[in-house]
Amino acid sequence: MTVHSGNDAPVSADDALDRLMEGNARFLRGEPRFSREAKEVLAGLTKGQRPYATILGCSDSRVPPELIFDVGFGDLFIIRVAGNVVSPEVMGSLQYAGTHLKTPLFMVLGHEGCGAVQAALAAKFKGTQERSRIQLLLENILPGLDEVDMQLPTQQQMERAVEANVRWSMRQILESPEGRMRLAEGHMKLTGAVCEIATGRVRLLT
Ligand SMILES: [Zn+2]
Q1: Which of 23, 134, 159, 186 would give a disulfide with 69, using CB separation of 3.0 to 4.6 Å?
Q2: What confidence tens digit (pLDDT) does each residue in 51-69 have?
Q3: Which helix (H) or strand (E) holds 136?
Q4: pLDDT tens figures, 147-182
Q5: Does the pLDDT at position 4 exceed 70?
Q6: Beta carbons of 79 and 56 less than 8 angstroms apart
Q7: Distance, CA 71 to ligand 1 centroid (Å)?
Q8: Which CATH number goes with the domain that contains 180?
């Protein structure tokens, strides 16, 4: 069994995605393998890192990418922020990953039952006000929820909103001059995904 680490030769975006989804399958089978070799892998990374994927995920404690993708030290460059929102600082981290680490795969990873998305829906449809900084965060999410139908049953509305929020972050990345440039080169790929909170299963958005 090969254990991939951040020291491996570069992989393509598709290989990177395969690795992540294979890791998620191991996690779902209850057969994670990484922790056994973790110390050795970390020791091998002292000279630098070469993660094969960059993930923009939510801060929610139930969706740690390393665990749900069964990966370890050196594999993923991760930005976690409530609601997996894009901000100038997040774009800076993404640009670092693109230009310096050259990770072939970029993933925006949302999750079911995201509190930030839920709060944004409440602000949108019920006019609920949060505290100042939280409100700023929600305002970042709101433009992505334009298409979400107020008439939908609550659960369906949340599902749509979570997906819409992932796509909104993806769109902001894609439409940035830097994102457009890197992706146009053809070595990189941006994908969206949603994690099922009860199982940890990751579903790719098509
Ligand atoms: Zn969340």
Answers
A1: 23
A2: 999 999 999 999 999 999 9
A3: helix 132-141
A4: 999 999 999 999 999 999 999 999 999 999 988 888
A5: no
A6: yes
A7: 21
A8: 3.40.1050.10
